[in-house]
Design brief:
The chain has 370 residues and is an alpha+beta fold. Among the domains are: 81 residues, DnaJ domain (Helix Hairpins), CATH 1.10.287.110; 84 residues, HSP40/DNAj peptide-binding domain (Sandwich). The chain has a four-stranded mixed sheet with strand order 10-11-15-14. A three-stranded mixed sheet has the order 1-9-8. The chain has a two-stranded antiparallel sheet with strand order 2-7. α2 runs antiparallel to α3.
Length: 370
């Protein structure tokens, strides 16, 4: 997993508010944007800033990062550039007016990139604690092996679309009461790809994609929680004619354990003890996640009390381990033999407990004279 400190990248504290994070991002983005800075490392720095902002500006992703340290794009689902349109203050809206944004026209962007796909993996609580690799059988739209995503048949060529000049968009004009307005629309001649293949690939019909079935290995990190998502980059739907593929978004489901209940990083277990153990104290064994744990029971413990065993809970991705909390239940025997009754009666008399308060039935019998 990535060790990049996103808070440090943006220059904010770990408890920074959403507004502070946004202001820091805007400032950093202006300083490092490739269009305004000529530094050799500007582009890499700009990518880091965008990656950090994408994580910290999203409540769920930030919480996931704070708890699990899932900064690796293949693990935590962070990819690409954040939307920096707000950084440069509405330039796009201004452009859209000049390009026909008024009256419902405007620019229409065609996304040739592949769509994201979703899948689910199921792990045991122990696998969630140790981390595990899981293989997924995936059927998706993948790269065409016949044309190598070019869309052209073997020996064929891809030529620049004469209608749009390779831009994938066509400029149209229309007259309005404000004058002639221009707008951009997807080029129908080339399917917005900017090129025309001749002849098209017989396998994919010029699309550069075909259906494939493959095995994808998903790395489930240590300490993952039920319902947490992972992103496997590039394993979504393939893009048209070599455009970027989407990602595989994997939801992890953690199966319930037979005897342990997870609450955050802590594990909870139940243990039954008898009245002698509760009175005198004892050492008992409780099944933990990785084997039996010895638990010291203090003398005089009461039912519903618990014992905390430090460091025997769930491991955390960023270091440390939760605790094992054992909830005690004192079992009172329902059946006693003669000797046990005598011993308990003798024990009770030694405590001087007496007869105790009369029950409702006894009070009713007294009132009736029974």
């Amino acid at each position: 997993m990535s060790q990049v400190d996103y808070y440090q990248v943006l220059g904010v504290s770990n408890d920074a508010s959403a507004d502070e994070i946004k202001k820091a991002f805007r400032k950093k983005a202006r300083e490092t944007h490739p269009d305004v800075s000529d530094g050799a490392d500007t582009e890499d720095e700009f990518k880091k800033i965008n990656e950090a902002y994408e994580v910290l500006s999203d409540t769920q992703k930030r919480a996931m990062y704070d708890q699990y340290g899932t900064a690796d794009p293949r693990q935590a689902g962070y990819n690409g550039y954040a939307d920096v349109g707000d950084v440069f203050g509405g330039f796009e809206d201004i452009f859209s007016v000049f390009m026909g944004g008024m009256g419902g026209g405007g620019r229409q962007r065609v996304n040739l990139e592949g769509r994201d796909m979703r899948a689910q993996v199921i792990v045991t609580l122990k696998e969630a604690a140790t981390g595990v690799e899981k293989d997924l059988q995936l059927t998706r739209t993948g790269p065409c092996g016949t044309c190598n995503q070019s869309g052209a048949a073997p020996g064929g060529t891809a030529k620049t679309c004469p209608q749009c000049g390779g831009t994938g968009q066509r400029r149209t004009q229309r007259r309005t009461i404000l004058g002639v307005m221009e707008s951009l629309a997807p080029c129908e001649a080339c399917g917005a790809t900017g090129s025309i293949v001749d002849p098209p690939c017989p396998t994919c019909a010029g699309d550069g994609r075909t259906r494939i079935t493959e095995t994808v290995r998903v790395n489930v990190p240590v300490g993952i929680a039920d319902g947490q998502g992972l992103r496997v980059s590039g394993y979504g739907e393939a893009g048209v004619r070599g455009a970027a593929a989407g990602d595989l978004l994997v939801t992890v489901r953690v199966k319930e354990h037979d005897t342990l209940h997870r609450d955050g990083d802590d594990l909870h277990a139940m243990a039954a003890i008898n009245i002698a153990q509760a009175s005198l104290g004892d050492t008992i064994k409780v099944a933990g996640l990785f084997g039996d744990e010895e638990i010291e029971i203090s003398a005089g413990v009461q039912s519903s009390e618990n014992v905390r065993v430090r460091g025997k809970g769930m491991p955390r991705a960023r270091g440390g381990t939760g605790d094992l909390i054992v909830h005690l239940r004192v079992d009172v025997p329902k059946k006693l033999n003669k000797k046990q009754r005598e011993l308990l009666r003798e024990f009770g008399e030694s405590l001087g407990t007496g007869k105790g308060a009369p029950t409702k039935l006894e009070r009713l019998k007294d009132w009736l004279g029974a």
